[in-house]
Amino acid sequence: MADPRLARLRLIRTTGIGPVTYRQLMMRFGGADAAIAALPMLAARGGGRTPPLADIATIEREIAATDQLSARYLFVDDADYPRLLAEIETAPPALILRGDLALATRSCVALVGARNASAAACRFARQLAYELAEQATTVVSGLARGIDTAAHIGALGSRPDGATIGVIASGIDIAYPPDNSALQERIAREGLLIAEQPPGTEPKARNFPSRNRIIAGLAIGTVVVEAVPKSGSLITARLANEAGREVMAVPGSPLDPRAQGCNLLIREGATLVQSAADILEQIRPFDARSVRAPGNTYDAPPPADASDADRRAVIDLLGPVPVAVDELIRQSHRPPAVVQLVLLELELAGHIDRHAGGRVSLI
């Protein structure tokens, strides 16, 4: 019997098929094998060529490497996929894990901040993480230098079960920065280590925003301890805000450039945080159990199909400026399933880009 992971990973690793496209393909065709078989037809309808599928031998090597590392895959349709992460539009179709997945079922708070953080900020982040972990709250961060490292160490020092999740931008076997290799291995043993990229993937700049969306998606709220404007930490805060999660920030001196990002967040409406109690007060009204449980939602394809008139109605509304899919539905007067199908065909043909906030544009 073929490994059931193989077809799903081929679809996920195919260039041009992102998280939104993957979900739509699975919803329409009910499984990865059927979706793969339909790709030529969909791309032709969109006016392009079929995207080259990921090589079977490459995927088989990836699966073997993952198994050899004592890691495991978690797919977005699995029952134990983290509920809050499954709620975001760009939830990763597959994660690679080492450690205790139960940590993701607790209330999670992301603690992020500057790599070149001040000693005082690192100490404060470590104390916040320690106190949050003592209250059975899982601390999520990205294993970077500075605030991330302090947050992980603080959480690990509080509880014997290592109440911290490390999300990395590389393969699960690659430590970055290298001086955090021992910490990363400890998190894999005592906490939970998560990677989206295949084993052997070196950290690349384009993978860090993707990692940040996972950090924000796992957490009820994101706390920025110290950050300069336009930093990766502020990207995480923005993603948290777009997902409807709490955004919190620790204030700092206006004379310190490393505090400017946090002070800006507070000015724009983020909750000012001075203690772990402030964080717990913000997240306690939220019950993660009220979030819809993930699971297999691919049982039957949507009944609607698209005609040439439908395609023209949607395409005529598109341009180089990103527009919300909801707006396309309103202005085209077509059912959502029809509009989504037309966009799926155009994306597979390489004619549209997807943007944050459920927006699309013509290429």
Strand content: 5-15%
Tell the overall outline: globular
User: For the largest beta sheet, what order do the strands appear in spatially?
Assistant: 1-2-6-5-4-3-7-8-9
Number of helices: 15
Rg for CA atoms: 21 Å
Sheet with the most strands, sense and barrel status: 9 strands, mixed
What share of residues is helical? 40-55%
Structural class, by secondary structure, is alpha/beta
- What's the mean pLDDT score? 92
Spans with pLDDT under 50 lasting ≥5 residues?
A: none
Task: Spell the H/E element sequence.
Answer: HHHHEHEEHEHEHEHEHEHEHHEHHEE
Task: Summarize the structure in words.
It is a single chain. By secondary structure, the chain is α/β, with parallel strands linked by helices. The chain contains 15 helices and 12 strands. The strands form 2 sheets. Strands 1-2-6-5-4-3-7-8-9 form a 9-stranded mixed sheet, with helices on both faces. The chain has a 3-stranded antiparallel sheet with strand order 10-12-11. Helix 6 links the parallel strand 3 and strand 4. Helix 2 packs across helix 3 and helix 6 crosses helix 12. The protein starts with a helix and ends with a strand.
